[in-house]
Amino acid sequence: MLAQGTLFGVNHIVGGIRLGQLRSEALPCAGSVKDLQFASGGKVGASGCFKGTNGEFDVAAESKRPFGTNTRFLWDETPGMGKLFIPLAEERVSGGGSEDSDASGFTTFEEDWFPAPAFAVVLPNPRSQNAFIDAAASIQKVIDGQYIDRFTRLVTLQFNLANPSLDVFMPMTMYAELPVAGGYAVVRVKHPPPLMLLQILFCAQGYKYNVVRLYQITANNSTNSIALEVAVALFYLYFFLRIVRSSLKKGVQYLFKARTLIQIVSMVFYGGMWWARYMSLETVPPIEELQVDSNLFFSLEIPASYRSFAVLLSAINSFLVVFTLADYLSGFGTLQVVTGSLYKSLRPSLSFFIIFIVVFVGFAIAHLMIFGQELEQFRTMGQSSYTLMMALLGDIPVEEMRRINPGITPVLTIGYISVCAFVVLNIFIAIVTEVRIFNFGSSHTSYSCSTPCRRTSDNAKRWKAVACPA
Amino acid sequence: MQPQLQLKKLLDRSEINVNLTGGGVILQTFSSSQCGYTGSLTFAGKLCLNAKDQARILLFQRRMRFYLLTQARKRFFFARHMDRTLLYIVFLVSPACLVNVCSPRFKTFVQMVYCISQVTTYQNRLLFSLSTNVVDAVINEEFDSSDTHIYKSFHDIGSTEEFYQYLQNVFFNQMYSDATGFNASDVVSIQTGCDLFT
Quick check: is A461 in a domain? Predict the structure, then answer.
């Protein structure tokens, strides 16, 4: 006989498994067909519409009415269909409670935001007694009770895994969005669109998971790691005080120097990382109450999201630190040629970036309007921009575009590649090259004494022209 | 020798001369072996001897002096970096150097070490295997053959009926069957020593 309650024998399923959904009220339609009538059961009425053109869920229009044919599913908890460790309302409040900050919710691949799912049906933990029979009965009730209907906007499946060998938890959410266009929107493309920072963290393709350590504030429990974290924290504190002292001595403008700004941003991210770790500990259920074989559903999404956010901030901080290292290395000989050229080309490159963005957005809009309805690569502005960015690297779906519109495809493709890749990007390279030659000479390795001499000569010639006009 | 002292001596030794001759020749030379470079500049031009032009000449002289000063500062900046680098290397083998190297560059170094430790923390192929295997087990698991005649997984759900098929015949089987279970005799040995999961 084989034991249940694990995946692959080592990943333990913690608590129950939550099947949930979010529902919207059908509101009066506002389009040109708002007066479209339909007859149903001898009654004549207007069709209802769901808020948003893309089926975006709105908390204000959320339906909390009980529903179901054989079983009445309730918004917070359905009797006889399992229990939650934290009530739904409390879960949403502890997650933040708004679209911008709710860690209990998430943004789907369709870029629609949803809070923590309601109308929970909690399947029992597979380790518990009669789990097989009870879970099968619950699923049958879900199907017979018509759990999913036209008011359903999102269906989720959530469960938590724990791997004691690796000392990690893995809360996982699988979701299927029901857009107003009909059908289900789960994974359709390979690459995520270029979303905002937090959306990258909280969104995935039809499912999301975080593999995190929840019950510790440090990244690792090893003594070396803890000692290093303490040392780094002390240094951050020291340099924070140093910046404060310098700003008091040299004035506020000291804070706006590029190098100081980078340090301040790094400190903010570092502080944010500790805040996120702290919030993770604050929102996680107490370890003594987290029973693996309990039939309660433990929502570990919020602490796991905070923990992942801490990792994200730490990753950005790592980039900033490496960036600072590049600045430091620029003090050495020929390395200054690289960093100095990039730095000095910032201002002349500004006009390039403006032109590039204008041209790029123009092409993105054109592709969106022509192919957006049929090709998923261009279905939104974000997707269109992402696909065109990939096109610069050579990955452009020409064949699919030709299938949609064989006439305009070559014009757009050749025009885009010619303008963006051949012209605009090469202009940027030309700007950097010219700046390098002007400031550091044409030799690849030359930052020698001849450079200041040449610059002195140039200055003298300028003076001559000013002092003694012909 | 302290950098400030070296800089002062350098400025004292540097030669910045402006010679005004009746022929209208301006001769200006400068050199600095201390900086590691030497240079000279000589040019002739029409000389204008009124007060305004003399002021311009003096301005040029000041500018040249300032230029020399800037170059010298840069040179010493590089030298200081080299010193720091040596201190960092020393720090690697001797924590006793901590007291003397509290500078922004040293912070960078500490942060780099921290980043490397972060990389070693998060670079764990087992964590990757864990997530990949779980996704494979629940997301990529194919539908039951009684429900479909082609390969279909969670990604391919397109209707409520298919969602129910997935829930009943794929997800349920993965979670509540022995498909991914392990031998019951292993339960005790695995749970031993792990209070959280007993």
Answer: no
Domain holding B58, by residue range, is: 3-90
- Of B90, B109, B124, the residue at which a domain comes to its end is B90
Shared domain check, A12 and A123: yes
A332:B78 CB<8 A: yes
* CATH (domain of A437): 1.10.287.70
State yes or no: pLDDT of A19 exceeds 50. Answer: yes
pTM of the prediction? 0.68
Residues A255 and A137 in one domain: no
Contact yes or no for B158 and A183 at CB 8 A: yes
User: Which chain B residue shows the shortest CA-CA distance from A11?
Assistant: B130
Any idea which of A155-159, A307-311, B34-38, B51-55 has the lowest mean pLDDT?
Answer: B34-38
**Length of chain B (residues):** 198
Residues A438-461, mean pLDDT to the nearest whole number: 51
Q: Are B181 and A468 an interchain contact pair (Cβ–Cβ within 8 Å)? A: no
CA distance A22 to A41: 27
* Token pair in block for residue A38: 């339909």
Residue A445 has pLDDT above 50, yes or no: no
Q: What digits encode the pLDDT tens for the residues A324-372?
A: 667 666 666 666 777 777 778 888 888 888 888 888 999 999 998 898 8
First to last CA, chain B: 68
What local confidence, expressed as pLDDT, does residue A14 receive? 93
Enclosing domain of residue A154: 6-30+46-209
Res. A203: pLDDT tops 80:
no
Nearest CB among A9, A209, A235 relative to B182 is that of A9
The last residue of one of the domains, among B58, B90, B122, is B90
C-beta atoms of A3 and B47 within 8 A: no
CA distance, residue A187 to nearest chain B CA (Å)? 5
Same domain assignment for residues B85 and B9:
yes
Q: Is residue A17 part of a domain?
A: yes
Residues of chain B with pLDDT under 70: 1-58, 60-61, 64-65, 68, 72-123, 178-198
Res A127: pLDDT: 86
Tokens 């919020």 found at: A302
For residue B187, what pLDDT is reported?
42
- Based on the fold, state whether residues B18 and B84 are members of the same structural domain: yes
Tell me which chain B residue has its CA closest to the CA of residue A153: B160
Considering the domain boundaries, does residue B125 fall inside one?
no
Q: How many domains does chain B have?
A: 2
The rounded distance, in Å, linking the Cα atoms of A458 and A438 is 11
Give the minimum alpha-carbon distance from B129 to chain A in angstroms, rounded to a whole number.
11
Which residues in chain B have their CB less than 8 angstroms from residue A123's CB?
175
Q: Which of A88, A117, A87, A121 is nearest to A105 (CA)?
A: A117
Phi/psi region, residue A161 (left: phi>0; alpha: psi -120 to 50; beta: rest), is beta
Tell me how close the Cα of B2 comes to any Cα of chain A, in angstroms: 19
Q: Work out the minimum CA distance from B47 to partner chain A, whole angstroms.
A: 7
Residues 6+ apart with CB under 8 A from B47: A468, B20, B21, B23, B24, B25, B26, B53
Whether A315 and A358 share a structural domain: no
Q: Same domain, yes or no, for A51 and A194?
A: yes
Both A304 and A165 in a single domain? no
Q: Is residue A132 part of a domain?
A: yes
Q: Please indicate, yes or no, whether residues A173 and A255 belong to a single structural domain of this protein.
A: no
Residues A164 and A20 in one domain: yes
Cβ neighbours of A467 in B, within 8 Å:
45, 48, 53, 56-57, 60
Probe site for chain B from A226, A322, A455, A463 (most B CB atoms < 10 A): A463
Q: What CA dihedral angle connects B134, B140, B141 and B145, to 10 degrees?
A: 180
Please indicate, yes or no, whether residues A408 and A431 belong to a single structural domain of this protein.
Answer: yes
Residues whose CB is less than 8 angstroms from the CB of residue A443 and which lie 6 or more positions away in sequence, other chains included = none
